[in-house]
Amino acid sequence: MSGAEGHSHLDASSPERYTASMRVAVVNISANFLLSTAQVIIGLLGHSQALVADGLHTLSDMFADLLVIFALKHGRKGADEEHPCGHERIETAVTMILGIVLVGVAVGISVRAGMKLMAPDPLVTPSALTLWTALVTLAAKEAMYRYTINTADRFGSNMLRASAWHHRSDALSSLIVAVGIAGALIGFAYLDAVAAIVVAVMIVKVGIKLSWQSLRELVDTGLGRKDLDSIRRAILSVSGVKALHLLRTRRVGGQALADVHIIVDDHLSVSEGHQISETVRAKLIEEIAPMTDVMVHIDTEEDVDGPSCEGLPLRDAVLKRLDVYFREIPEALQIEHVTLHYLDGHIDIELQLPLSLASPDTAAHELGRRFSDAVQDDKDIGSVEINFH
User: Dihedral angle at the C-alpha atoms of 157, 163, 165, 168, nearest 10 degrees?
Assistant: First the structure.
């Protein structure tokens, strides 16, 4: 994987991630409060609707950062009975809310600016102080963007990335506001209102993008093709894995989850199959960021290519049948273990018997034939094999 998402394996509950994110949120709230207060007051006194609009945008950032703190406090909680997969998607939901807030603020700004442009009264030229306020805001917002986006990239947090883009949109809007105010100061009074509308369009674009990304995550959109190819290569590099299918992925906050069916030899022991699956799981978590959990299902080639074994009886039912089939075979009383192989739409049976029953060879062969004949009318049983030890 590439980009910011490949920088860290820390999940949403990481103390380091939580502390850094909280620090960003607190700094941004403090800065946004001071900036929005100054923008709105100076904008009203200096007759700049663009600066007031920008101040309201900044104020929306402050409320957005409050939502970030809420999500950080609740999203880091571990799994519980009602939330078995954890609370990380609180981050996703908050990111979506932030995007919607941006769109709402932008619509309000554009409507107000449009009404000003269409009003019959002459537009008032803003004061020079509003220009300086816009320039100071531009510098502060760009600094806040860089501070927040660095933390977001470090921990792979889409929520902090959304918050950072709030600041970047504010920085860009402040630049446009400064240009609009400067134009108004030199005689083009309408540029202040035009700047407000341009700012609104920019905010709408960012808000829609963030909301759409969050919606895709909430409906379990999988990882991209490049990431999926990396996952497949990692799985197929594990010894014992012949192939894979039904690979499914999804994002949860700053994490990614996957489940996959791997194909192994059809006569592996349960413990060896489990060991292979655990190796696959550990390899993906180690090599594929930000993968935090993987569910691995073991299949055999017959499960995929042959007839389905669905509906075949389980061990208890099979053993009851065998007791009936083998009741005329005295040697059946010495069966030490029964192994069942569910393959190609039927059950192959391995019987483990004492070595003393294997001599002479003709007797062992005859015994095997008697066991096989006893089950030949059962459509669920494919074959019976005897092992002596």
Answer: -130
pLDDT in tens, 320-367: 999 999 999 999 999 999 999 888 889 999 999 998 887 776 688 889
Residues 187/180, Cβ–Cβ less than 8 Å: no
Structure tokens at 122: 């002459």
- What's the residue count for the chain? 389
Residue 57 has pLDDT above 90, yes or no: no
SS3 label, residue 142: helix
Q: Which residues in 204-238 are b (16+ Cβ under 10 Å) and which e?
A: bebbeebbebbeebbeeeebeeebeebbeebbeeb
Does the pTM surpass 0.70? The reply is no
Rounded Cα–Cα distance for residues 175 and 206 (Å): 16
Give the containing element (helix H, strand E) for 339: strand 337-343
For the purposes of burial, counting CB atoms within 10 Å of the CB of 154, is it exposed (0-12), middle (13-18) or buried (19 or more)?
A: middle
Cβ atoms < 10 Å from Cβ of 322: 21
Which residues have CB under 8 Å from 21's CB, separation 6+?
Answer: 68, 72, 151, 155, 157, 160
Q: How confident is the model at residue 8 (pLDDT cuts 50, 70, 90)?
A: very low
Q: 266-271 — which CB contacts under 8 Å span 24+ positions?
A: 266/300, 266/301, 266/302, 266/341, 266/343, 267/341, 268/240
Distances from the Cα of 174 to the Cαs of 18, 56, 309, in angstroms? 30, 12, 66
Give the model's pLDDT for residue 89. 60
- The residue written with tokens 């470090």 in the block is 154
- Yes or no: say if 277 and 311 are a contact pair by the CB < 8 Å rule: no
- β-pairing verdict for 291-300 and 346-353: unpaired
Residue 293's identity, in one-letter code, is D
